[in-house]
Design brief:
It is built from twelve helices and twelve strands. It is elongated. The termini are far apart. The strands form three sheets. It has a six-stranded parallel sheet, with helices on both faces. A four-stranded parallel sheet has the order 7-6-8-9, with helices on both faces. It has a two-stranded antiparallel ribbon with strand order 10-12. It is an alpha/beta fold and 347 residues long. The structure holds beta-D-glucopyranose (BGC). The site of beta-D-glucopyranose has 12 residues, from α2. Beta-D-glucopyranose binds next to α2.
Length: 347
């Protein structure tokens, strides 16, 4: 009796042990488990990009391949994000996609990924080159910031050329800028290149002020209200680093009941659902499409290729490990195609 019991226990232990081991090896074969963490769920563009990414990953779910995603948002805390990366690794993710809270401090995340030998794709918030060089299994997917500033400048130059913007007729355009986070590559470079482009196009500019509003609509409304308080009707052009802040600026003018004739023209970047609608309605004179569908598609393609080892050749890298998806100009003429395109995405 005792012997039989012992045998049963031994067999059980053996079986349990075997299936435990077997599970890990057969389980991960044919499985792409993507661990995602992004800096803040209050960010409109990131929310839309993550939705696109989930859809793109779903498209890779075929009979042979099982693709799953675990998505976390870090609520603006670097510490939380580091813990999330640990959790995603422990949960068995075999590729990581990280939208850094602090783009200047990715070392801990790179270390964790390297120790577990899990490829690491940064997106939208670009680490500095020095950090990208820490490990050869790090990648970056984003968009060429300079181009977004250039396109915003070209759109604005066209509208200015058509007339009506220089309301005081002094031959110069009095403008203000709403900027994203101070150390974000897109904020710094967009601001610089939009102004350069307008100047290159021969537009005489007079900068009245700039304010940092951290990509955020409510903050932008606040800052814009202060600037209106200081400059009253003088502001002729509002250049915003993203659509949310451009909308915040429009909100400020609406709250003060400014008429069409006394308002500046507004330009954004992103082409979020709200931004595109605002271009259609004429609240924004134009925006620059931050191509979230294409960024999501290439990130999904790269995630799958890094895990399966197949398909890397089909991806167009710059500097071996960077992918920059081009921006597109949006104005009243073509906005409908972008609205249709965004709505075509499955929910
Ligand atoms: C987008 C912003 C967004 C930021 C977040 C930028 O590329 O234009 O709307 O808030 O990324 O990192």
């Amino acid at each position: 009796m005792k012997k039989t019991l012992l045998m049963i226990i031994l067999c059980g232990m053996l079986l349990f042990g075997l299936s435990g081991c077997g599970e890990t090896s057969t389980d991960t074969a044919g499985k792409v488990q993507v661990g995602v963490t992004y800096y803040n769920q209050t960010d409109t563009f990131l929310g839309e990009l993550i939705d696109c990414f989930k859809n793109s990953l779903e498209e890779h779910n075929t009979g042979e391949l099982e693709v799953t995603a675990m998505v976390r948002e870090a609520a603006g805390s670097e510490k939380t994000q580091n813990e999330q990366v640990r959790e995603l690794i422990d949960a068995g993710c075999n590729v990581l996609c990280v939208n850094l809270v602090d783009r200047a401090d990715p070392s801990e995340i790179i270390d964790m990924a390297r120790e577990s030998d899990i490829p690491l794709i940064f997106f939208n918030r670009e680490p500095v080159e020095e950090d990208m060089l820490q490990w050869e299994q790090t990648y970056y997917v984003g968009a060429p910031a300079r181009q977004s500033g250039q396109m915003q400048g070209e759109l604005a130059a066209d509208v200015i050329r058509d007339g009506g913007v220089d309301r005081n007729g002094d031959g110069r355009i009095q403008y203000v800028i709403l900027e994203g986070e101070a150390d974000h590559q897109d904020a710094i470079i967009r601001t610089e290149s939009v102004v350069n482009t307008l100047q290159e196009k021969g537009v005489e500019l007079e900068k009245l002020d700039y304010q940092i509003a951290n990509w955020n609509r409510a903050q932008a409304q606040n800052r814009m209200r202060q600037m209106i308080g200081q400059f009253h009707d003088e502001i002729e052009l509002v250049l915003s680093n993203n659509d949310d802040m451009a909308m915040g600026a429009v909100d400020a003018y609406n709250a003060l009941n400014y008429t069409e004739e006394n308002r500046p023209v507004f330009f954004g970047v992103d082409g979020t659902a709200v931004g595109l609608q605002a271009v259609k309605d004429g609240d924004l004179a134009g925006t620059v499409y931050n191509d979230k569908e294409a960024q999501a598609n290439v990130m999904a393609q790269l995630s799958v290729a890094l895990v399966t080892g197949e398909g890397l050749d089909a991806i167009a890298f710059e500097n071996e490990r960077y992918i920059y998806v081009p921006y597109l100009k949006v104005d009243q003429e073509n906005v409908d195609t972008f609205i249709e395109r965004s709505e075509a995405r499955p929910e």
